[in-house]
Amino acid sequence: MSEAVRTAVPRLIITQDNRFWFDAAREGRLAIQRCTDCGTLRHPPAPACASCRSFSWDSVDSTRRCTLHSYTVLHHPKDDAFDYPLAVGLVDLEEGTRLVADISGVELDELETGMELEVGFAEHAHGEILPRLTLPGGDAA
Amino acid sequence: MSGGGFSGAAAIAGIGATEFSKDSGRSEWRLACESVLAALEDAQIGVEEVDGFALFTMETNPEIAVARALGIPELKFFSRIPHGGGGACAPVQQAALAVAGGVADVVVVYRAFNERSGHRFGAGPPPFAYSANTDQEYRNWINPYGLLTPAQQEAFLARRYMDKYGATSEDFGRVSVLSREHAARNPKAWFYERPITLADHQNSRMIADPLRLLDCCQESDGGQALVIVSTERARDLPHPPAVITGAAQGVGPQQISMSSYYRPDIDEMPEVELVARQLWSQAGVGPDGIDAAVLYDAFTPMVLLQLEEYGFCGRGEAKDFIAAGGVALDGRLPINTHGGQLGEGYIHGVNGIAEGVRLIRGTSVNQPAKELGNVLVTGGSPVPHSAIVLTADR
Predict the structure, then answer these.
(1) Which InterPro entries would you find in this protein's record (chain B) (predicted)?
(2) CB neighbour burial string for A13-24, b if at least 16 within 10 angstroms, e if fewer
């Protein structure tokens, strides 16, 4: 996808709280923020742990194995950054946190909550490398 | 009246609106001014007496612009509430608090926009979405994957709810059919004399599966204003007061705008339950004491979920409550008698507050036959929420 694509997708808002996650995605790793005081995992990233209020954190890499918690198939409106109909999923990662990403390589009538998926990575709007969901062992690109 | 505090101290004494259209042909500023004048005329209160405004942060016509245009000399109270339609009822709370606290005497709430001929919420992120700040950071986690509009962002909840309770697209469609039936009898409604059938709903095109076109509210141009004064003063004005006996806001655990996807149960809305709990305490009634409701219907599934969160039926039971006629005009809880935002127009929920006032006055075009003592009006979900209870002064 070239930078010339006209898209309504806003540019990523990168901060000191979330930069690690986008850096990891560019390397093909799915990072999950972890409180280094109480060990609680959290996503989306935030400056403090909602369980113990600690500002200390690091991250762990996810196995990228997940199950589909909910999904939608988008038809309208259409944005130039995507092909439609566009399936988008909310998944439960094996580690216990959730994640939103678009779904590739699954027939639309085969989508069902609870199905096993895997997080891969692919180029998205503005050339960003971000998660994309596939069948286990699938090709996100 | 129980609950103490401001409950019962203030009332909505005037309502006024422009026409609801798809192309007003006028500036948003003018729509705001027209609706404010109409509401003051309805209340029979002089324009120069206005000394407060309470608005949405999304309102693009600031109070000072309207005050200047209308020659309102002094404003002592002006506040703004975030979260769009979720906050729709909160400016009324602000107004009631200001009046009850003696900070202002005549507070006007308005919402005015060209939301169809100008920027359409259903077309993509609003202009402010492109500001790089914490307020918009949540978009990092949804927009890059295609979830750009409210319908797209709400679909996960609808799907989960269907899977969990066996609700179907037809169950959502019944809300749409009822709203259009009401709108068909409302000359002010965009869909006046244009009812639909359940088959029309089922045949309408898919927008964000499972949401079809006829699950989505309209996009509208128009303005709606409300005038809030003390209940004591309202008693001397032409219309029966719609007394504000409950008015509450709510944010729940791990709340994210339109995308609280990381809670254990994404189809539950603790912020709505929190608002309900406050309202019942303030107004001294529970769901059993509510005689009619205007439930925020940006998308049909939220009507089902709100019926459950407010305790009008149990979880997963809204589809049966609706199918059995529970929300029809002659049912236990008539809802959205103006036609809702699906049928009348989308003025970000504020036109629904006006309908709540008409229900208390007994002047809705679809006035239920029974006497209405308490009417619930709600804001949008799944965002930070707000709602009010309006009570007849009997």
Answers:
(1) Thiolase, Thiolase-like, Thiolase_C_2
(2) beeebbebbbeb
**Chain B partners within 8 Å of A140 (Cβ):** none
Selected from 3.60.20.10, 3.40.47.10, 3.20.20.100, 3.40.50.1100, the CATH number assigned to the domain covering B10-118+217-392 reads 3.40.47.10
**Mean pLDDT across chain B:** 97
CATH code of A63-141, in short, is 2.40.50
Q: Which structure tokens are listed for B373? A: 């003592």
- Mean pLDDT over B190-202 rounds to 98
Residues of A in contact with B212 (CB under 8 A): none
pLDDT tens by residue, B287-323: 999 999 999 999 999 999 999 999 999 999 999 999 9
Rounded distance between C-alpha atoms, residue B13 and residue B45, angstroms: 9
For the question of residue B310 being annotated catalytic, the response is no
CB proximity under 8 Å: B 108-127 to A: 122-125
At B347, list the tokens: 């003025």
Give the separation between CA B1 and CA B7, rounded to whole angstroms: 7
Of B376, B365, B266, give the one whose Cα is nearest residue B327. Answer: B376
Q: Quick check: ipTM above 0.95?
A: yes
